[in-house]
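Follow-up to my post from last week.
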Amino acid sequence: MMNVMRLFGGRSASAPVARERLQILLSHERGRTGTPDLLEMLRSEILGVVSKHIDVDPDKVVVKMDRGKFVSMLEVDIEVPNGVQRSKMVAAT
Amino acid sequence: MAKVLVVTSGKGGVGKTTSTAALGAALAQMGQNVVVIDFDVGLRNLDLVMGAERRVVFDLINVVQGVAKLPQALIRDKRMENLWLLPASQTRDKDALTEEGVKRVIADLKTKFDWILCDSPAGIERGATLAMRYADEAIIVTNPEVSSVRDSDRIIGMLDSKTARAERGERVEKHLLVTRYDAARAARGEMLSINDILEILATPLLGIVPESQDVLRASNVGCPVTLNAASSAPARAYTDAVRRLMGEAVEMTVPVERKGLMDRLLRRRAA
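User reply:
Got it. Predicted complex:
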């Protein structure tokens, strides 16, 4: 279909892309207004759990969300230095 | 029974002020008593688009604060005696508008006019929420473009939750007005189509205003397009929209590209 349009139109139609992107985005945004930012909440809670056991630099924790039409991907990336020190909190207990 | 209508969009530059002026003038042409209110405190422009910028003495905030009486602040249109403007303040802070004050002014206007059109500022802050606060109906102005459609979706959510009607468990009737629609680009698949927008926003369509030089020309001279070029395509679209607002069943036609042989030749040469 795209190829046919390219033949006649000279360049590909971008409106279907716009439509699809909007549909995905809005299905996530609706009903979410007013609640605190989910990603920031996940980031701080995950950081809390991890730092109970390992010393991590809060700036080295990256939480990413890739929203798809049917499923979304939550990606958590935590940089742990080599020769890791067990957290003092754990050591104390 | 007076109707309070908010013209809103979320995004700036989509044509709220132009549309407020055009719809207000079209309602007045049909014999209705109309007032258009500029809620864009600090960045007023409805006076300019209506051609009344040199006659502003008092404004909405003066009335809200009791500095001026409502009849002193209302400006009568030079062309139509049943069309009035309540301008925004240019110098005051938007926090000078209070919910109580706006409620009082609108209640007062309701006793004098058939239609009260509130021109909302862009954004979702105080000015925009106050403009929609006491609305019975809303016109959401949308361009066939992703950021405009997304912002319209936000505004629709606010109309359903943050208005006085919504809080009373009633509904603000919503109408979608698509502006700057370019039929040729939509046909080539370069622009969201009317169906795309309707499907995404799930809001009834009030009208489709085609992209046109007549709109810019009208604001250049300070005259609503429905008065300045009454037979132009955008003016007809606004007039049809107003007839639908008044309950008339007017057939909706999606603008199509008119492509004559000369246009084709000229376009090819220009490209």
